[in-house]
Amino acid sequence: MTVVTKKIKFQTKGEVDIIDISKSVNKVIQETNLNNGIATVFCPGATGAITTIEYEPGLIEDLPNALEKFAPKNAYYKHHELWHDGNGHSHVRASILGPSLTVPFNEKRLILGTWQQIVFLELDVKSRSREIIVQIIGE
């Protein structure tokens, strides 16, 4: 069994920017000598999240609307008392969605559903330079 760790770097536009990273993750897998295994996609940081969605205009609009319902931007967050940075909702949203996802691959291709893509969600209130870790375990 072999373990390969790679990075994917990109710039976000700011709050609730949803970026399809499926092709980038597939490219990282194809650059290895591994044919079968699992890839863990991880976002270091407390205001980004990794998940899967059908990356289409309706859901790109629906997901931020749903996030606003369960962790409203204008609600009171104790986090603001310490840092005064206005991103308490960003931390709550990221905690609920989670920082990582593990996806199997076969013959150097991610095994995803027909309408399923891996996405990064920028949940912080400003644009950020992000570095996503992809750790691949396989043979």
Condensed summary:
27% of the residues lie in helices and 37% in strands. It is of the alpha+beta class and 139 residues long.
How would you describe this protein?
By secondary structure, the chain is of the alpha+beta class. It has one domain (2-138): YjbQ-like (Jelly Rolls, Sandwich). 27% of the residues lie in helices and 37% in strands. It contains four helices and eight strands, in the order ββαββαααββββ. The protein has helices spanning 22-30, 57-70, 79-83, 88-97, and strands at 2-11, 17-20, 37-42, 48-53, 100-106, 109-110, 117-122, 129-138. The protein has a five-stranded antiparallel sheet, covered by helices on one side. A three-stranded antiparallel sheet has the order 2-7-4. The termini are close together. The mean pLDDT is 97.
List the helices and strands and how they pair.
Layout: E1 2-11, E2 17-20, H1 22-30, E3 37-42, E4 48-53, H2 57-70, H3 79-83, H4 88-97, E5 100-106, E6 109-110, E7 117-122, E8 129-138
Antiparallel strand pairs: 1-8, 2-7, 3-5, 3-8, 4-7, 5-6
CATH superfamily: YjbQ-like
Helix content: 25-40%
User: How do the strands line up in the largest sheet?
Assistant: 1-8-3-5-6
For the biggest sheet, the summary is: 5 strands, antiparallel
Structural class comes to alpha+beta
Q: Number of helix segments?
A: 4
CATH architecture assignment name = Sandwich
Order of helices and strands: EEHEEHHHEEEE
β-sheet strand percentage: 35-45%
**Count of beta strands:** 8
Mean pLDDT: 97
